[in-house]
UniProtKB/TrEMBL annotation:
<dbReference type="GO" id="GO:0030527">
    <property type="term" value="F:structural constituent of chromatin"/>
</dbReference>
<dbReference type="GO" id="GO:0003677">
    <property type="term" value="F:DNA binding"/>
</dbReference>
<dbReference type="Pfam" id="PF00216">
    <property type="entry name" value="Bac_DNA_binding"/>
</dbReference>
<dbReference type="InterPro" id="IPR010992">
    <property type="entry name" value="IHF-like_DNA-bd_dom_sf"/>
</dbReference>
<protein>
    <recommendedName>
        <fullName>Integration host factor subunit beta</fullName>
    </recommendedName>
</protein>
<dbReference type="InterPro" id="IPR000119">
    <property type="entry name" value="Hist_DNA-bd"/>
</dbReference>
<dbReference type="GO" id="GO:0005829">
    <property type="term" value="C:cytosol"/>
</dbReference>
<comment type="similarity">
    <text>Belongs to the bacterial histone-like protein family.</text>
</comment>
<keyword id="KW-0238">DNA-binding</keyword>
Length: 112
């Protein structure tokens, strides 16, 4: 279970619907643009490129070296993990500042 209470969940569809309500564009056009946007992000990350969205954050691909002798938590069996890459998100200063008060309010046990 997450140590932070989940206030609300947004999906791609709910974000597209919110944009539709605030704009003069057709819903299908907004869906098309969002699909193209995420497809381009996907392809850029697949190529190992970094995506920087000013004011929001940076997506990048990082290499993780495999490890030997890790224990499978379900079976207790020792297993080796392979080298692999992961997508990492680093929030920008503006986004970090915007969510900081929410985290403090939702986590009363947080060390301050």
């Amino acid at each position: 279970m997450s140590k932070h209470k989940q206030i609300n969940k947004q999906t791609k569809t709910s974000i597209v619907d919110a944009i539709y309500k605030k704009s003069d564009h057709m819903l299908k056009d907004i869906h098309s643009v969002s699909d193209l946007f995420f497809a381009e992000m996907f392809q850029a990350l697949e190529r190992g490129e970094t995506i920087e969205i000013r004011g929001f954050g940076t997506f990048s691909v990082q290499f993780r070296k495999g490890r030997k002798g890790m224990r499978n938590p379900k079976t207790g069996e020792l297993v080796d993990t392979a080298d692999h890459s992961v997508v990492v998100f680093r929030p920008g200063k503006i986004l970090s500042a915007a969510v900081r008060p929410l985290v403090e309010e939702d986590a009363p046990d947080a060390k301050r």
